[in-house]
Amino acid sequence: MRADRVFAYGATAGLLGDLLLGDPRRGHPVAVFGRAAGAVERVLWRDHRGWGALHTVVCAGGAVALGAVAAAAARPSRTASVALTGAATWAVVGGTSLAREARAVGRALETGDVEAARRRLPHLCGRDPQALDADGIARAVVESVAENTSDAVVGALVWGALGGVPGLLGFRAVNTLDAMVGHKSPRHRRFGWASARLDDVAGWPGARLTALLAAAAGGDARGAVRAWRADAGKHPSPNAGPVEASFAGALGVRLGGALSYGGRVEHRPVLNTEGRAVTVGDIERAVRLSRRVGWLALGVSAGASLLRDRVARGPARELTKGRVRRSRGAS
């Protein structure tokens, strides 16, 4: 097996593993990383951006280094390299868990059990469930599905195509650090600044690819592109904006508006103002769109990896041919 096929085969195996197995109930690698990052935070925490940057470097850099060491150890065997890539992909993507949690909330809302839906919502996002009615919960789920399609699936595949196993682990480490310390609580406003900014940079390509694929796969490409262009820049997040706006346009719904986090109310701009209000049935539509986007992202990422490696091999082949011709001429 040629080296340029390692990521394509491994990422496909990993995404199939996520589809069939989902996340383990105990001992998930991301949870293990989270505990390690929490331990490092307890040692390094100071109310200072510099110490927060050091925390980011130690944790994210450690994940990248671990991936690089593992990839180097597996490199002599193509089979081992594919298996390692597949295991890393399965460990960092979370499309099945995302779909499962979204559908669980949707089922509770369909039966009219709003309290059960409120209890389940924190598995998806950090909003105050008690501040939401049924329609508000449904909107929160659709927004979370959209944003996490980029964070939990597409972004990881993009960085896997760019950097192999170190790219996969590094992206998930950065994204996890942002979730842990990248918010504006009093403890993390300064300490988490570096993690939040690095997550913005790392998430940029995956978010744009997610928005593009949502437009292509959502059934209303024109509406998705229109909402993306008109409303994405109004969102406070440079990456969630394009993704949520494109999903809103593709699904024909309105997203955004008043949100409540930790007792703090935020008034965010409405995305796709021409759309209708979200209903419970839109949760399943968003999950299906997320699935399609994930598989399309696999195709794009695997194809880009194959193309990149073939282009990189071109000069090497020409150099080898030149050496052979010179050797023959000298003889």
In short:
The chain is mainly alpha-helical. 73% of the residues lie in helices and 5% in strands. α2 (29-44) crosses α7 (134-181), α4 (78-92) crosses α7 (134-181) and α8 (193-217) packs antiparallel against α9.
Notable characteristics:
2 strands, transmembrane helix, two-stranded antiparallel sheet, globular, Cobalamin biosynthesis protein CobD, mainly alpha, cobalamin biosynthesis, 73% helix, 11 helices, cell membrane, 331 residues
Strand content: under 5%
Distance separating the two termini:
34 Å
Number of strands: 2
What is the structural class? mainly alpha
Reported for the largest beta sheet, the result is: 2 strands, antiparallel
Q: Low-confidence spans: pLDDT under 50, at least 5 residues?
A: none
Which overall shape is indicated by the principal axes computed on the Cα atoms?
globular
- Within the largest sheet, what's the order of strands? 1-2
Mean pLDDT: 91
Along the chain, the helix and strand elements come as HHHHHHHHHHEEH
Radius of gyration: 22 Å
Percent of residues in helical segments? Answer: over 70%
Number of helices: 11
Family: Belongs to the CobD/CbiB family.
InterPro entries: Cobalamin_biosynth_CobD/CbiB (IPR004485)
Keywords: Cell membrane, Cobalamin biosynthesis, Membrane, Transmembrane, Transmembrane helix
Pfam families: CobD_Cbib
